[in-house]
Specification:
Number of strands: 25
Strand content: 35-45%
Number of helices: 8
Structural class: alpha+beta
CATH superfamily of the largest domain: DNA Polymerase III, subunit A, domain 2
Strand order of the largest sheet: 6-2-3-4-17-16-15-10
Shape: elongated
Helix content: 10-25%
CATH architecture of the largest domain: Roll
């Protein structure tokens, strides 16, 4: 981290674009509702526990009839804007957390913001008058510009759905950094997203998407932190599509008037196609709601550390059971057509619950097995031909 940090802070004042940006004594009036909306979007990117004080600040830049707000933690940045009455074009930095908390407490109406001497910033609203201690604009790291020429348009609903169906399967282990993100696979007619933590894998493919400018296949690894931000931005936009672009180091997502950048994850994502089950011929179909209820009840009595529960398939019934020396034991039965050989297999109950939550706990779900030692596969049993979603789980020894 240190090398990136020092270079970022040193380069900024030298950068020509920084010099061209407004540097005067900013003075603006902006509506509280609009300002708060953009601060809410940007504040989640601000570095909380930083050793570099400037990263705890928002950068405000006012020019024309627009206020642009930037936040960064050096790994990712968000640039957003709203309309403002600009009396004097200029730029300043303001402590992000303090400003956000303060603006939330102000009544509706106009807020005037003015840069004073020594980087202090005056904020006036109604009868409130506050001065906050800012920092020099020159210390704020340069944020890369969106490369419009190489951007690909992606459907907002499709990407939103793909992120929600995969993000929970991303690894939390720092040491396995190529698994700390999801792989986005873009083709001319389809897009897919895959995430795995080595114990489970979520794979979703959306067919019938027309992606202009993509020939062959484009694979991009998107860090978990960026996916979480994207998910929030997609949830609050009315835009139908977003623009996605990348260069050697950075990923760019332009959603409405907001641009999120993220440092790329380097390294090779595992060959996930090799682990997708081919011959899971034994299957059972159950209502998601029934399965969720049974798992949640039985999981109460599973071993706390492993969370392991047992699935037993026999003639026309699915039995779930668990036991632990501390808590006791529990069994739940779901009646459902099943006409294959009996099968007993163990899984992590939380991993099963994660999948059922992701599909919204409605409709039916299909569980596919080969034997007790091989990966199981789960997928929603719906008639949606365009979206293929599957979840692969490694079994546990019980």
């Amino acid at each position: 981290m240190t090398t990136a940090t020092t270079s970022a802070t040193q380069e900024t004042p030298m950068d020509e674009t920084a010099a061209a940006a407004p540097t005067g004594n900013l003075e603006i009036t902006v509506s509280r509702a609009e300002l708060l909306r953009e601060l809410t979007a940007a504040q989640s990117v601000v570095e909380r526990k930083t050793t570099i004080p400037i990263l705890s600040n928002f950068l405000f830049e006012a020019d024309g009839d627009k206020l642009t707000i930037t936040a960064t933690d050096l790994d990712q940045s968000l640039r957003t804007s709203c309309t403002a009455k600009v009396k004097k074009a200029g730029a300043c930095t303001i402590p992000a957390r303090k400003l956000y908390d303060y603006i939330k407490l102000l009544p509706e109406g106009d807020i005037s913001i003015k840069l004073m001497d020594n980087h202090w910033v005056q904020i006036r609203a109604g009868r409130s008058n506050t001065k906050m201690v800012g920092m020099a604009r020159a210390n704020f790291p340069q944020v890369p510009e969106f490369p419009a020429s190489s951007a690909v348009k992606i459907s907002v609903p499709s990407l939103k759905n793909m992120v929600s169906k995969t993000i929970f399967a991303i690894s939390n282990e720092e040491s396995r950094y190529t698994l700390n993100g999801a792989l986005l696979v873009l083709k001319a007619e389809s897009m897919a997203m895959v995430a795995t933590d080595g114990h489970r894998l979520a794979h979703i493919e959306k067919l019938g998407e027309t992606l202009e400018g993509i020939s062959g296949e484009k694979k991009t690894l998107i860090p978990r932190k960026a996916l979480a931000e994207i998910s929030g931005l997609l949830g609050s936009t009315e835009a139908e599509s977003l623009e996605f672009a990348d260069d050697d180091q950075t990923l760019f997502f332009k959603i409405g008037g907001r641009v999120l950048t993220s440092r790329k994850l380097t390294g090779q994502f595992p060959n996930y196609e090799a682990v997708l089950p081919r011959d899971n011929t034994k299957f059972v179909i159950v209502r998601s709601e029934d399965l969720m209820g049974s798992i949640q009840r039985v999981a109460q009595f599973a071993d706390e550390r492993s969370g392991a529960i047992k699935i037993r398939l026999e003639q026309n019934e699915l039995k779930l059971s668990s036991s632990s020396t501390d808590a006791g034991e529990s069994e739940d039965t779901i009646e459902t057509p099943y006409n294959y050989d009996p099968l007993v297999v163990g899984f992590n109950s939380q991993y099963l619950i994660d999948f059922l939550k992701a599909i919204g706990n409605t409709g039916e779900v299909r569980l596919e097995f080969k034997d007790a030692q091989s990966a199981g596969q789960m997928r929603p049993e719906d008639a949606n031909e365009d979206v293929k979603y599957r979840y692969i789980l490694m079994p546990m020894r019980i």
